[in-house]
Amino acid sequence: MHERVSAARARLRGAGLAAREAELDARLLAQFALGWDAARFATSAHEQEPDQFSAVYETLVSRRERREPLAYITGHREFWGLEIEVSRAVLIPRPETELILEQALPRFADRDAAIDIADVGTGSGCLAVALAHERPRSRVAAIDVAEPALDVARRNAHRHAVSDRIEFVRGDLLDGVDRRFDLIVSNPPYVPLRDRATLQPEVRDHEPEAALFAGDDGLSVIRRLVAQSVTRLKAGGVLIFEFGYGQAAAISELIDRTDGLGLLELVNDLQGIPRVVVAIRL
């Protein structure tokens, strides 16, 4: 089995993956095909291959060789310690999106508080599910314009036993809700259309365009989100959303000139790049 995984690693490197990513993905695909965790693979990979393993593994490696994202192949991605189902109907959750939770939870530190939350453009529901999981008395509106995405989000809510506290709303940004919230979170589309060619094939060729691109400057959806949030936040309510590289100045200016909103913080990711904004309803 080691030889087969080594051959797969070489194929993935030939397809353009970095050496470390190719090594990891070749092993993870083998574990997925076998139904083994990392510990069992480490101790049992020397054993004779189970029947059908080679055929199943070949199919999986071929998909990854074509630069299909690993998460779409396995059907899940970990987010905030939760296993989240993903499909090509939704954006794959990224580690940087956890910054939204890192900013939101301390601002609503009482686990027993009844919090009204909106997750705008919920996609897989990763933010809505994580917030409902962390704040068991919260009520969450998970909003998305795409019904297939809402179907994925519903399954994730059911998987983590928070369905009873999440309302799934089909709508364009906040158009589908008419109540006010303590907290609005979002990972909106923010990639400029002009940057399409610079994206990795995994993103450009596989993830849903509507969840990625937002006009020539990447801010067309964010402008609408900010404008709508003013009318949907309670006094003292908080808006937290993710944005893209090089957009920090524009985001700060947008918040500053939006009556009723005040900028609290721009939060950097692990690379020191501004990635998340926190604003308050004045």
Can I get a quick summary?
This protein is of the alpha/beta class and 282 residues long.
* CATH 4th-level superfamily of the largest domain: Vaccinia Virus protein VP39
Structural class: alpha/beta
End-to-end Cα distance:
61 Å
Helices and strands, in N-to-C order? HHHHHEEHEHEHEEHHEHEE
Globular, elongated, flat, extended or rod-shaped: what is the shape? globular
Strand portion: 15-25%
- CA gyration radius, whole angstroms: 20 Å
Query: Largest sheet, if any?
Result: 7 strands, mixed
User: What is the CATH-assigned architecture of the largest domain?
Assistant: 3-Layer(aba) Sandwich
Number of helices: 11
User: Taking all residues together, what is the mean pLDDT?
Assistant: 96
> What is the CATH first-level class name of the largest domain?
Alpha Beta
